[in-house]
Amino acid sequence: MSIPLVDLKQQYAALRPQMQSAMQRVLENTAFILGPEVQRFEEHFADYCHAKHAVGVASGTAALDLSLRAVGVGRGDEVITTPFTFVATAEMVANLGAKPIFVDIDPETYDIDPDAIESAVTPRTKAIIPVHLFGQPADMDHINEIARRHHLWVIEDAAQAHGAEYKGQRTGTLGDIACYSFYPSKNLGAYGDGGAVVTDDDALTEKVRLLRHHGSSDRYHHQILGLGERLDSMQAAILDVKLPYLDAWNEGRRQAASRYNHLFANSPVVTPAEHPDVRHVYHCYVVRTPDREAVTRALSAAGIGYGIHYPLPLHLQPAFAYLGYGEGDFPISEACAREVISLPMFPEISAEQQNKVAATVLGALS
Ligand SMILES: *Cc1c(COP(=O)(O)O)cnc(C)c1O
After folding, report:
1. How far apart are the first and last CA of the chain?
2. Is 197 in the pocket of ligand 1 (CB under 6 A)?
């Protein structure tokens, strides 16, 4: 019996009738781009985040691009972020002609280290992008305090943290503006690409709404130059069917994480550390082991899926070579990149599946 890293089939099977009728409705209505389906989902998702506004966009990448543009990041600006993340976080900064400034991470939470942010601030710094990596919110009080003191924008990359909480408050309202991805395997996933920008700020919302749709609020009249980065109605309808289940799915992930923690207790496997201030939603269940090669070989042989998030930190990627960073600049990120393994994690994972994963990992290390 093989075990996938992520199993999207069980979730679809459980939602099939509702999903098919929602999709049928979109097909009959033929309002395929924006329209009432998108508006309805935006309202529901803003409510879910306890935020004032959500704007549906084409992807998490688009959410980052539009948020950066909305706060005015451009040529010559610096944006501080983590090198231990998916490339889009820094890629969108660089595409706007701004410079990503990397700082190292906390080895326990894998999130950006606020103490390192402070010393990276310069007169050119415009924003900080904390990434709530693997579903665990970053140290937001500390980050917001630095941002306030230096007049910087805080853009949450919440692509892996739908419904995660920091001191009882959900992601989406922990900074000035937040970016979500609905890539199919995310905690809330579409059946294609999708994303959202969430904020309490009316002016930023208006700016993102214009930017996602060619600077236009009135057909064929363009107030500013924008992009074509809208959420489509089919994805909005699909997401709206799924949203009411998100809390239960996150709870399923948390229970699975706790079961794994128990199975790996008193072993050489380093399990995820959940900071007491947060509610982690385990987009990924990431462990570190003394011998990754042996573990991944054993998992493959047993037909068990795994991921490496991420094998090469961004400061060592060829695409960012022009920034001039080198090996040894961010030793914690580099060590994590060498050691991390993401084990199968999805809300429906069974105890038997988890037992088999743990036995395989521990067997490889014994
Ligand atoms: C998935 C992800 C993105 C990009 O989202 P897409 O919807 O794939 O464009 C950005 N940042 C992080 C941290 C992600 O995990």
Report:
1. 23
2. no
